[in-house]
Design a protein that fits this description.
Length: 203
């Protein structure tokens, strides 16, 4: 780790203190994990404090940890929360970056506070995370689907979402409108079976 990155890590730990869950370094970037309850306060400090000045939210994405850490037996070794949101921050004035990850407290109804009041650009990013992962953002001014249509059922980036989807859309000439109906495609396994005989002997 460079001296500059080390100094940033130490300053983050000193200023944010108990709001941090962890802070790690990997391939020249810091990842800060903070508590959901103090997310708005933490992000405001990261934007406004002179030592940080993260003026820009570059990206925001959802993560589903449902199958994270599976071993060779298919057993899930992950014991943390299922859903998280990752924020990528940039300080143009100080030329430094930071990744912030926060876990939603509820796996059934994941919700985090919106960042629109901190960085207005979070608006569409949060709509995308809601659409694809079903993560709700409390206080968002217009939280509705962004990439899928209004009749779409489910959230396609969740690990348990079926590959063929839940509903299909088609035009019905009798009703003269688009209708939604249950998927009529049969489930197929397209993964080829490989049979190996490791114990054969040639004469």
């Amino acid at each position: 780790m460079s001296a500059r990155l080390q100094k940033l890590q130490e300053t983050l730990s000193l200023v944010l203190g108990g709001k941090l869950v962890s802070i790690t370094s990997h391939v020249g970037e810091l990842t800060l994990v903070c508590q959901a309850e103090s997310l708005i306060q933490t992000m405001t400090v990261l934007r406004d404090q002179d030592e940080f000045r993260f003026e820009q939210l570059i990206d925001l994405c959802g993560v589903d940890y449902a199958d994270f850490g599976q071993n060779d037996l298919g057993e899930n070794t992950w014991s943390g929360a299922r859903y998280a949101v990752v924020y990528h921050l940039l300080s143009v004035s100080l030329n430094q970056r930071l990744r912030v990850r926060v876990f939603a407290n509820d796996d059934f109804f994941p919700m985090l506070p919106t960042m629109v009041q901190v960085w207005p650009v979070a608006n569409w990013f949060e709509r995308e995370a809601f659409d694809l992962y079903g993560i709700m953002f409390e206080g968002h001014p217009d939280l509705r689907r962004l990439l899928t249509d209004y009749g779409f059922v489910g959230h396609p980036f969740r690990k348990d979402f079926p590959m063929i989807g839940n509903v299909e859309m088609r035009y019905d000439p009798e009703q003269q409108r688009v209708i939604y109906q249950p998927v009529s495609i049969e489930l197929r396994n397209n993964v080829p079976r490989v049979i190996r005989d490791e114990g054969f002997h040639r004469g």
